[in-house]
Design goal:
The protein contains 5 helices and 5 strands, in the order ββββαααβαα. With 132 residues, the protein is α+β, with helices and mostly antiparallel strands. α2 packs parallel to α4. The protein is elongated, with a radius of gyration of 18 Å.
């Protein structure tokens, strides 16, 4: 699999970063951090979210795919993979861009967890004020 030409896409979501490589003329094999995708993702919903760009463009089984993902939680990693797949598919065929953008897969969701502030319970939650 490493000898063939591939298309690469980088996806990010929260603290997760995914490097996706799509190999043309494949049969739909997917490895996530060296494991089959159904071993890596416990929930089917996370995997369906990750491969949604293939469903939008109708090219699912034409590619083999390897993914290196780190950081964040499982759902954040799945969404990072989704963005990486979308970016790689645009490199395969630029005509996919409009459909993927319309589905919202090309835009980085920049929301991250706000840091905890000193003297507060969480980022913004303060203790209850008592007058007496």
């Amino acid at each position: 699999m490493a000898d063939m030409r591939y298309y690469e896409g980088l996806g990010r979501r929260k603290r997760a970063v995914a490097r996706v490589r799509i190999y043309p003329e494949g049969e739909g094999k997917v490895l996530v951090n060296g494991k089959p995708y159904n071993e890596y993702f416990g929930r089917q919903k996370d995997w369906e979210c990750a491969v949604a760009p293939f469903e939008v463009t109708n090219v699912g089984a034409q590619f083999n795919m390897t993914v290196l993902v780190k950081g964040g939680g499982i759902t954040g990693q799945a969404e990072a993979i989704r963005m990486g797949i979308a970016r790689a598919l645009v490199k395969v065929d630029p005509e996919y861009r409009s459909a993927l953008r319309k589905a919202g897969f090309m835009t980085r969701d920049s929301r991250e967890k706000e840091r905890k502030k000193p003297g507060l319970k969480r980022a913004r939650k303060a203790t209850q004020y008592t007058k007496r």
